[in-house]
């Protein structure tokens, strides 16, 4: 990194991707910052800059050696899973600044050596306290997909069995009964259930009443008059559409098609 680039970063102050430390002398404390960056989109730890004023206070040769040793210890022993960092020294006038590059991790959620996950919230580093946020970290790393999430309180009894049997027939070319497997076995094998709970995919594709568990998975359609997005006059509206994904699609497309308007312009027709 060039000195002019670093000065520009320092001038903009701390953020979700930049953290100043005048001195790094606590492996655990700096590890929480590394964890937070790894759980977000990565960032820069800059040592030798006052975090209150942004004033430069460069490190001596001995401080550089000790700081680099501490940073490696923090990344390998105080971050779980351990991460690899890249550090460099940048000279600005008579000041030597250490810049540590922390990449976004692929094994989220990262935690400190006490088992606590951290994230950046603006320039602040905070603990992750909710299970929902932990789940989002898992999803963002690709370790779990949203449609694989088990749905609380759902059971095999919430499946529309006729709809599912028809799917199995089309998918495998064999009837459900000819498979020789029970409903729980097939659902688990296909990823539509985990143990005794339906996954989100299983619920939305084959559930009798998906919105009883996930009300947000409905579709609200309104046809407004004119082109003003803030308008209040509408031609057509319906209560939120509910049902499985196929039913939602069919109801939504039906609404759209019946509300298309044709306008004759010369010899061409345009939909409005």
Give a description of the structure.
With 272 residues, the protein is of the alpha+beta class. It is 33% helix and 20% strand. It is built from eight helices and 14 strands. A four-stranded mixed sheet has the order 1-2-5-4. Strands 3-6 form a two-stranded antiparallel ribbon. Helix 2 packs across helix 3 (61-77). The longest helix is centred in the N-terminal third of the chain and has 17 residues, at 61-77. The radius of gyration is 28 Å and the shape is elongated. The model has no long low-confidence stretch (mean pLDDT 90).
Topology:
Layout: H1 3-11, E1 18-21, H2 27-39, E2 43-47, H3 61-77, E3 79-80, E4 86-92, E5 95-102, E6 111-112, E7 118-121, E8 124-127, H4 131-140, H5 161-172, H6 183-189, E9 193-194, E10 197-198, H7 200-206, E11 222-224, E12 234-237, H8 245-258, E13 262-265, E14 268-271
Main attributes of the structure:
272 residues, alpha+beta, Methyltransferase, Cobalt-precorrin-4 Transmethylase, Domain 2, 3 domains, two-stranded antiparallel sheet, 14 strands, 33% helix, 20% strand, elongated
> CATH class of the largest domain, anyone?
Alpha Beta
Q: Main sheet: which strands, in order across?
A: 1-2-5-4
Largest sheet: 4 strands, mixed
- Percent range for helical residues? 25-40%
Q: Could you please say which CATH topology of the largest domain applies here?
A: Methyltransferase, Cobalt-precorrin-4 Transmethylase, Domain 2
SSE series: HEHEHEEEEEEHHHEEHEEHEE
- Cα(first) to Cα(last) distance is 53 Å
SS strand fraction: 15-25%
Poorly predicted segments: none
The helix/strand class is alpha+beta
Number of helices: 8
CATH superfamily of the largest domain: Schlafen, AAA domain
| Mean pLDDT over the residues | 90
Whole-number radius of gyration?
28 Å
Number of domains: 3
Note the overall shape.
elongated
By DSSP, the count of extended strands is 14
CATH architecture of the largest domain: 2-Layer Sandwich
């Amino acid at each position: 990194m060039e000195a002019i680039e670093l000065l520009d970063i320092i001038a903009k102050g701390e953020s979700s991707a930049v953290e100043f430390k005048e001195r790094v002398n606590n492996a655990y404390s700096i590890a929480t910052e590394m964890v937070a960056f790894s759980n977000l989109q990565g960032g820069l730890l800059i040592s030798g800059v006052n975090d209150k004023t942004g004033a430069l206070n460069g490190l001596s040769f001995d401080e550089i050696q000790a700081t680099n040793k501490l940073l490696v210890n923090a990344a390998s022993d105080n971050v779980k899973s351990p991460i690899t960092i890249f550090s460099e020294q940048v000279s600005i006038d008579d000041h030597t600044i250490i810049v540590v590059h922390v990449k976004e991790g692929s094994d989220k959620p990262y935690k400190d050596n006490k088992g606590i996950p951290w994230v950046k919230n603006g320039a602040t580093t905070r603990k992750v306290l909710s299970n929902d946020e932990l789940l989002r970290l898992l999803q963002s790393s690709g370790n779990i997909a949203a449609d694989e999430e088990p749905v609380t309180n759902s059971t095999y009894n919430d499946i529309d069995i006729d709809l599912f049997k028809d799917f199995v027939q089309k998918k495998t070319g064999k009837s459900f009964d000819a498979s020789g497997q029970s409903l729980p076995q097939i659902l688990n094998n296909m990823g539509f259930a985990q143990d005794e709970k339906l996954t989100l995919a299983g619920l939305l594709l084959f559930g009798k009443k998906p919105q009883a568990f996930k009300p947000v998975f409905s579709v609200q359609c309104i046809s407004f008059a004119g082109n003003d997005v803030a308008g209040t006059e509408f031609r057509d509206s319906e209560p939120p559409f509910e049902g499985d994904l196929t039913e939602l699609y069919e109801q939504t497309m039906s609404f759209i098609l019946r509300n298309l308007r044709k306008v004759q312009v010369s010899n061409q027709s345009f939909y409005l």
